[in-house]
Amino acid sequence: MRITSRKATLSGLALIGTSALMLTGCAAAPEEDNTTAAADSDFLPCMVSDAGGFDDKSFNQLGFEGLNKAADELGVEPKTVESSAETDYAPNLTNLVDQGCSLIVTVGFALANAASESAAANPDVEYVSIDDTVDLDFDGKTDQDNVKPLVYDTAQAAFLAGYAAASYSKTGVVGTFGGQNFPTVTIFMDGFAQGVAHHNEVKGTDVKVLGWDGKDGVFTGGFVAGTDAQNAAQGLIDQNVDVLLPVGGPIYQSAAAAIRGAGREIALIGTDADVYESDPTVADLLMTSIRKGMDLSTYEAVLASGEGDFSNEAYLGTLENEGVSLADFHDWSDKVDAGLADELDELKASIISGDVEVTSYLAE
């Protein structure tokens, strides 16, 4: 995967306009009485997962929850299909088109090629692309007019997590690893490393980041929990890290297994969802999570389509519009410095104002 090309592709988001950056660019929330009805009684919303599946307690699950919430308010029954490999993407999309889907949501960067081809072949079907702008010709705009991208500048929230990790670390070594070297994965790792560097600068610390050097790092080769993910985590643990950020859906479960066998306290940082809430089996290990508002943005995009208000304007989640955020410390509140939460609030405000710069392939 050519990261430099993808950076050039997505930098065109800065040209989309302010409305694309705010939640207000999506459909407004329904009234409390939940009487919203689909403009077309035949409206059929559908979704294709990536290889992680809808029960990954993270990335795919958030999109799935957003789809189902919108479908419930519209009074329709969605169709969903899970992918187990890259070769499933195109057939799964064709299958949903053949079933008469009005809107198809593709979950993940890896589906971009298949989504673009399917959207081009079916201009009357509306598409929502989670985590990719579907700009395969690298001209800075989405390839097809019937595709709405939902993307998230998670580097901003990951910056806060990196700062918190550096503040907590007793060994002076923190680590991160990912599923694959995709921009949507490394954007977390970039922000995390920048946050650690910022803490070192303002606090005079010398915390090191292992697993990512800004171009390459530790990757499992996929987005499933298993031996490869656990070995990647173990390799970092063996180098004395005491904070670990796995990026890639359910691979955090393998990291948790490695942490439990380490014989010492190591803080786990979740991604996408607030993993403390989505997966109680690892809650005791979690210092915090870097959240994407995928459930809300998916919900609003599906709802808008069902009400006849589909827009292909890109949505960009940021700290300012709460499309990305850092979760609470939960059970780790008494393990981090007493003033850390206030420091993070101030840092968040500085990122939003531009006083502290966070670079990423989605930053203007």
List the helices and strands and how they pair.
Layout: H1 3-10, E1 45-48, H2 59-74, E2 79-81, H3 89-98, E3 103-107, H4 112-121, E4 126-130, E5 147-152, H5 154-168, E6 173-178, H6 183-203, E7 208-210, H7 227-237, E8 243-247, H8 251-260, E9 267-272, H9 275-278, E10 286-292, H10 294-306, E11 315-317, E12 324-326, H11 340-353
Parallel strand pairs: 1-2, 1-3, 3-4, 4-5, 5-11, 6-7, 6-8, 8-9, 9-10
Antiparallel strand pairs: 10-12
Number of domains: 2
Helix-residue proportion: 25-40%
Q: Give the strand content.
A: 15-25%
CATH superfamily of the largest domain: Response regulator
Largest sheet: 6 strands, parallel
Q: How far is it from the N-terminal to the C-terminal residue, by CA?
A: 22 Å
Query: What fold name goes in the CATH topology slot of the largest domain?
Result: Rossmann fold
**Computed structural class:** alpha/beta
Poorly predicted runs: 1-39
Q: Mean of the pLDDT scores?
A: 89
What's the count of strands?
12
If you had to describe this structure to a student in words, what would you say it looks like?
This protein is an alpha/beta fold and 364 residues long. It has 2 domains: 3-152 and 294-317, Response regulator (Rossmann fold, 3-Layer(aba) Sandwich); 155-291 and 333-340, Response regulator (Rossmann fold, 3-Layer(aba) Sandwich). It has helices at residues 3-10, 59-74, 89-98, 112-121, 154-168, 183-203, 227-237, 251-260, 275-278, 294-306, 340-353; strands at 45-48, 79-81, 103-107, 126-130, 147-152, 173-178, 208-210, 243-247, 267-272, 286-292, 315-317, 324-326. The strands form 2 sheets. A 6-stranded parallel sheet has the order 2-1-3-4-5-11, with helices on both faces. Strand 9 (267-272), helix 9 (275-278) and strand 10 (286-292) form a beta-alpha-beta unit. It is globular. The relative contact order is 0.17.
